[in-house]
Sequence to fold (678 residues):
Amino acid sequence: MNKTQKIESVMEVVRILVGLLIAYGVALLTLLLISDEPGFIIQQFIIGPFSSARRIGSIVNLAIPFTICGLSMCFMYAVNKFNLIGEGIFMFSACMVTLVSVNMANMNLPSVVMVPLMYIVAILTGVVFAFIPAIMDRKFNANVVVVSLMLNSVIAYLATWVMRYLMLDSTIAYLGSKEIPESVQLPSILGSFRIQSGLIVAIICVVLVSLLFYKTTFGWKMRIVGANPRFATAVGMSALGVSFAAQLAGGAFAGIAGATEMMCNYTRFQWTVTTQHGFDGLLVAVLAKKNPVLVPIGALFLAYIRIGADVVNTSGDIPTEFVTVIQGIIILLVAAESFLSGTKNKLIFKAAEKEEKEKQAKAAA
Amino acid sequence: MSIDWVAFIAEGIKMATPLVFAALAALITRQAGMFNMGIEGMILCSALGAVVFAHYGNSVWIGLLGAIVIGLVTGMIIAFSSLTGKTDLYLTCIAFNLMATGGTVFVMYLLTGEKSTTSGAFRAYAVPTIDIPLIKDIPVLGRIISGQSLLTYLAVLSVFLVWFLLKKTRIGLRIRAVGENPKAAESVGISVPKIGYISFAFCGVFAGLSGAFLSMSWVQFFMKNMANGRGYIGLSAQNMANGEPVGSALAALLFGFTDSLSITLKNQTKFPTEFLNMIPYLATIFAIIITSMIAINKKRKIEKGMAKGKEKA
Fold:
């Protein structure tokens, strides 16, 4: 690694950290301005998430779907396709898992059979739905962002219809599906932290995706296509084919995320709108700079500010929505090319100047 | 089952109004070479802005002005981030729309203590509807053309204003030049970022009007996520017509009718509402497929023609 590359990678980390700090500062400032007792609220926002074993556990639990969704968006982002279908897949995968498991309840199959089966259902759901915008992108060059967003609205209504007409539990007072059988309700682990067993799924996914990205030809192809599609085509890769396959893989992981959330966190399917997990995944992928190894860190950070906002919401009546504004600011700052680029260029210039002087000094000696 | 078709058409024109404004907003940035998905968030912010300004200014006109101002401000935010900050425009717009969804709820909560709608806390202001003399007495046509919101007539007028702006003025020529070939435009001394900002300003005005229609004409309050994909539908409408003002407006009108179809069927039939709600979104997806297919066929024909030309030579 030469000096310029070194400076570039260090500055990349600095940029992300400064971006996060600014966004965090904005969050604190907002709390300061709107709260009646700012000192207490800010303290709650910063250290509240760590105040009990249960809350630390919920940070990890919240980070589980964020991680898997972040991995899903890494695939899309790696080939530079902002296919946001993950948002809809997350919801519909949970819906399909519920539908299938409820219908298989009287077969009394053990967890060993049911849980893998549910993941197969989830992956199929993900691939099928990711296929629609991906094939439209490939065959008709249709705008993948608009198509996926429109499709998300359709999916939300479709899932609601499935819940209301195919698996509604009319014995409960609220709108919800029948209860899923116990064989697919995943238990908590690690005692008082109450961490969900989805953690294991998330860890496996991170390892798998990291291997896929950095140890296989497909991962290498994806990164080339994302960095420079023209070069990829010029050296004989099918840029369209690679990005198509990457989008399907991304869809599969969004499906896994939805199924994990459903089986760990709920006993009934009761969503009528999409859950924002797809967009959270995008934030995590942007923070991790498309690198699956760094995805859990981004996910934990997001979970930390989310839990902080929840704590503040319960103890000080501040709406949690302000976090989405903070999330937007983070994406904008981290993704902005010119943010701190002046400093970076100055550092590179200085390093080059220094090198030149040293050379001259050597030549003189 | 009998459906009131006149009401259906009148409703279609009404529902097309915000889509026409959205399509105009989208096409101005598109003519400058930018695919601006942030319109969705801009409309949402303007819709809230309209209600807030109208309530505190005690006038519907202040509300309308407020919506336009908010449209301009949000347009500048996206332009700054994308043109000056050099962030990927797609990413900027996705982030901005995310901020708009949460931010509008946040502001609404701070001002009213409510999280879903302002209808309880804020007074209702409506942009007046206009009865056109003579035409309003014609049996069927009167019910359709007359009695629409002032903003609907303004939308029709705006289509021609935008056409004039793009085709007959200096600034319009420059916007199109930048969209066609930014490097060529730069070489003759046009500042590309400056033109970008200007097109975003026009875009902001129309996004503002679209938002104002939603919260001061369609209904008289703001509710959470009330844009509901209209920005994207407007964007697709202008895409169908390749950024031509009149064609885009007609496409938006078509989408307005799909919206109206969904509303009419919901009121007059017992079909599951979930499927009726999907109609506008499915229509958009199909429209995108069809226009893309046409564009690809055209390209193939041109390529074939070129190949033939070469053979002859």
The first strand of chain A starts at residue 188 and ends at 189. Chain A has one domain: 53-316. The mean pLDDT of chain A is 87.
